[in-house]
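#random but structural
TW: two for the price of one
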Amino acid sequence: MAMPGDDAGSRAEPLLTAARGWLRDALELARVRLALLGVEASEHALALGTSLALLLAAAVLLSAALVSLLVLVTVLLWESQRVLALALACGTLLGAGAAAAWAGLRRLRAVSWFEASRAELARDVERLRGGPRA
């Protein structure tokens, strides 16, 4: 003779198995996406570190060259136009600093951070909504 609780238990078991499978798939998907995010983060960090090192070297060398040039111009014009020479030196340094700051900010805004991860997550959302499968 069948017990009333046995019928409910037998119906719940496939549902529980399906829920476990769905949860396992979701966790695996999250693990893969986090791994992709980690790879992208390390690539971005390496590229950023290399760029910063090169930019720092360029800034130091160009600054030394610019200061040397400004000292040369100031020494050449010291007897006749010393105020003009110093004003040109200050203006040149201010202009170069402003141009470097503008270029650096523009470059930072142009970087598309974690583009592959965002694209994968967008495809995941589309698949979950029942969209086309890729």
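TW: number two ↓
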Amino acid sequence: MDVDTVLTAESYDAAVNAAGCVIEAIKDVMEGKGRNAFCVVRPAGHHAGPQGASEAMVEQGSKTRSHGFCLLSNVAIGAAHAMANRLAARVAIVDFDVHHGNGTEEVIRNLKPWRYKHVADTPLGEVAFDTLAEGPWLTERDSENVFFCSIHGFGEYSTGSPYTGLFYPGLGGATEEPNILNIPLGPKFGTQDFRREKLLPRLHSFKPDLVLVSAGFDGHEADFMNYGLVSLTEDDFFWVTDKLCEVAEVTCGGKLVSILEGGYNTNGGPLSPLARRFICFSPPLLCLSSSTLDLLSPPHASPACPRTCELC
């Protein structure tokens, strides 16, 4: 489809199944069949916009459109299903993949009705007509009832990277709007900046009925896809998941569905960096006891990974 997104005969089925998994998880959580859920799906979806490829910027002033390995916006489809079927009136989406969730943001921005003009040359002269673009999922006030936050790497590729220019997708500079919050990370940001208190107060004040998490693990210091731009640890992933679960507990009875986005270092199988991140990400969702965590934790797990969590 583009330079970084390829298709096979099974790609469509895989994408539909991934989105369907998210829908089923949301239905189960909202109907009380489960406290929360983690959808381990591929392909990822947060770079897919309302018309497929979403806007990206490879260099300052040089815009393009790219799918970024994504075919369908799993998290946006899940949010749309929840609102259209009145399972939730207010949905919060938090994306902590190392790459900005530009596709998800495009979807959210297109919830507000807008029109664009077509101009065509005919033998009788120029003809112009308006077309209604992507509209709301349920009502014209949908944009007021969806909150989106992306915490991601932002800046230029580091020295030694095979790429130059802006870190993909080159968008997502610091943004604070009523329903959109972008928190950029980079070499000048330490791990504590990842934990800034901008997000949590906004989530609490928004009071969602459902929290959706685009969980990307490619910001980890051992994942090659961030090319050294950020260096998050297992402790960071535990912290953000734990805090999101706390917000969900207070605002919507713990209703939270997490969807896998990036995370590519699988070298070592069950001992890989991605597997270790899953172990540190899961306790707040599963409320595992410390003894269970000791059984699951790989023998060479990072000491930063907490081994205990309070029972919910």
